Fold:
Amino acid sequence: MSGAVVVTGAARGIGAAIAERFAAAGWDVLAADLAPDVEQTAARLDGAASGTVAAAVADVASVAGRARVADALAALDAPPRALVNNAGITRDALLKRMTEEEFLAVVRVNLGAAHELAALLAPRLADGGAIVNLSSKSASGNVGQFNYAISKAGLIGLTRALALELAPRVRVNAVAPAFIATEMTDAIPDELRERFVARIPFGRAGAPAEVADVVHWLASPQSSYVTGQLLPICGGRSFGPS
Ligand SMILES: NC(=O)c1ccc[n+]([C@@H]2O[C@H](COP(=O)([O-])OP(=O)(O)OC[C@H]3O[C@@H](n4cnc5c(N)ncnc54)[C@H](O)[C@@H]3O)[C@@H](O)[C@H]2O)c1
Structure:
């Protein structure tokens, strides 16, 4: 498959694994991230890739950042075929302590930037293109994460609405990882992490590469009749005992 993909939040974690998966399959990849480290991530992947892996240091929650992403995508040789909305943040707090700033920041990045990038880039995607949104098992609710849960539940609605609007030209799907070992989950206290892992039927956290394989499949022609769907990646957690 020749095509270019934008992966947001690609400096590290799941986003870096997704960028690596697409690069390994021969796509041109634009790795976009607020963190300047994305340049090192892209340079590391570019060395091993048959296509190009380029970086854009950009805050996708800002108009200027999204414009930088669009310009960098247009500079790649391959036609744009996919957008992966992976950039995400947490600002956890209980209802009584959550500030308006923490609430809005999470909704702004996790949901707002995904919508605005989709609006900007969907018309530029080649026919048969795809958008994949990183939702979360937390969309169904987590104590201390109502801002995050709202943003991830909103992504499911965005996925379904855009899938209808953009059909049949562009497919839109979402994945819902449960507990994946990255810097985001490293920030969770050990005792809580052990409790989460104990509830996963597979008995372990997922690896970023295990999310990347599914995201790549959802952007590839192998899933050509799949749109508007939410696919859990959870080691059985989403239907296991609570
Ligand atoms: N790790 C998990 O268990 C898990 C589970 C479910 C869903 N997710 C989702 O998967 C995605 C990736 O998670 P992760 O664990 O790799 O997170 P992470 O914190 O390790 O990486 C997120 C990346 O997004 C970037 N980013 C944040 N705000 C940005 C912005 N405004 N513009 C551009 N880049 C920005 C960060 O700089 C970082 O490189 C997130 O959307 C997260 O909510 C993760």
